[in-house]
Structures are given as structure tokens and as C-alpha cells.
Amino acid sequence: MDYKQVQAVTKELKIQLTTFKGHRGVDIRWYLESPEYTGASNKGIWIPIAQWEDFKKRINDLVV
């Protein structure tokens, strides 16, 4: 199912520690819940644990 066509009843940003292809990382993506589809969207980012500290530093360096 193409999630772009699904009108989400609820939408929540989830940040989870996951394993992908045998490697641990931080997964950041939207979680959708509707009558047509319930689950994670395929729009998101996965950051390997080895790069997590660098990612946090770069986020802190951003000027908003």
C-alpha cells in the first residue's frame, strides 16, 4: 500500500533503537494509524550507533 494515499487518523513521531542488517541504530520516523494502514512510514532516517554522537553534536550546532 502506498502510504501517501492514506489519510492518517493519528500520526506520531517515534524514535527507537533498532537493528538493521545486523547493525544497531536509531530509527526516527512517523508512525501512522488509520483504518487503511497502521505502522511506520517509509519516510524517515536510520542513524548507525557509531554515528549517533556526531549526529547529536551536529543537531546542537544548528542555529534555529
Descriptive report:
With 64 residues, the protein is of the alpha+beta class. The chain has one domain: Transcriptional Coactivator Pc4, Chain A (Transcriptional Co-activator pc4, Chain A), CATH 2.30.31.10. It has one helix and three strands. It has a three-stranded antiparallel beta sheet with strand order 1-2-3. A hairpin with a 4-residue loop joins strand 2 (23-33) and strand 3 (38-48). The radius of gyration is 14 Å and the shape is flat. 0% of the residues are buried.
Helix content: 10-25%
Mind telling me which CATH architecture this is?
A: Roll
Structural class: alpha+beta
Could you give a short account of the major beta sheet? 3 strands, antiparallel
The strand order across the widest sheet is 1-2-3
Radius of gyration: 14 Å
Total helix count? Answer: 1
CATH superfamily: Transcriptional Coactivator Pc4, Chain A
Morphology:
flat
pLDDT under 50 segments (min length 5)? none
E-strand count: 3
Q: Strand percentage, roughly? A: over 45%
Chain-averaged pLDDT: 86
CATH class annotation = Mainly Beta
Count of the domains: 1
Alpha carbon gap, first and last residue: 36 Å
| Secondary-structure element series | EEEH
Task: State the CATH topology.
Answer: Transcriptional Co-activator pc4, Chain A
